[in-house]
């Protein structure tokens, strides 16, 4: 048999969770928050059915034919996304958001950080969070700006 070069692939899996939140920054006055976030600053909050697509990247294992076992990915997503976020008030039930505004961008960062703790090193490629059909955030972790 001739040696074969490694084949790389990306594998994605999605989950949907429901949560509510209020867009409000402690760094701004009530008036500034209302101007910046509009109806999303409603003191009683508002809810979404978020769709999250997690993509991992790696070599296709020549024996299993997989980048990663989907059952394991499903379990990691359950622990990193569903358990802390599903049917929660993000601002009140998730400690991370007590100091961080619960924007979709920050939800994506939260999910990325949680998955990084569980997945094999270097396999996580991107996290997509669909807040609505029109609003989607893609986070790849390595994209930071030094100020």
TrEMBL record:
Molecular-function GO terms, alphabetical: 6-pyruvoyltetrahydropterin synthase activity; metal ion binding
Known cofactor(s): Zn(2+)
Name of a matching Pfam family: PTPS
InterPro entries attached to this UniProt entry: 6-PTP_synth/QueD, 6-PTP_synth/QueD_sf, PTPS_Cys_AS, PTPS_His_AS
Residues that bind Zn(2+): 21, 46, 48
GO cellular component, one term: mitochondrion
EC number: 4.2.3.12
Pathway given in the UniProt record: Cofactor biosynthesis; tetrahydrobiopterin biosynthesis; tetrahydrobiopterin from 7,8-dihydroneopterin triphosphate: step 1/3
GO terms classed as biological process: tetrahydrobiopterin biosynthetic process
Superkingdom per UniProt: Eukaryota
Residue ranges the record marks as coiled coil: none
Spans traversing the lipid bilayer: none
Cofactor binding: number and manner: Binds 1 zinc ion per subunit.
Enzyme active site: 40 (proton acceptor), 87 (charge relay system), 131 (charge relay system)
PROSITE patterns membership: PTPS_1, PTPS_2
Keywords: Lyase, Metal-binding, Tetrahydrobiopterin biosynthesis, Zinc
Protein's job: Involved in the biosynthesis of tetrahydrobiopterin, an essential cofactor of aromatic amino acid hydroxylases. Catalyzes the transformation of 7,8-dihydroneopterin triphosphate into 6-pyruvoyl tetrahydropterin.
Family the entry assigns: Belongs to the PTPS family.
Protein name as catalogued: 6-pyruvoyl tetrahydrobiopterin synthase
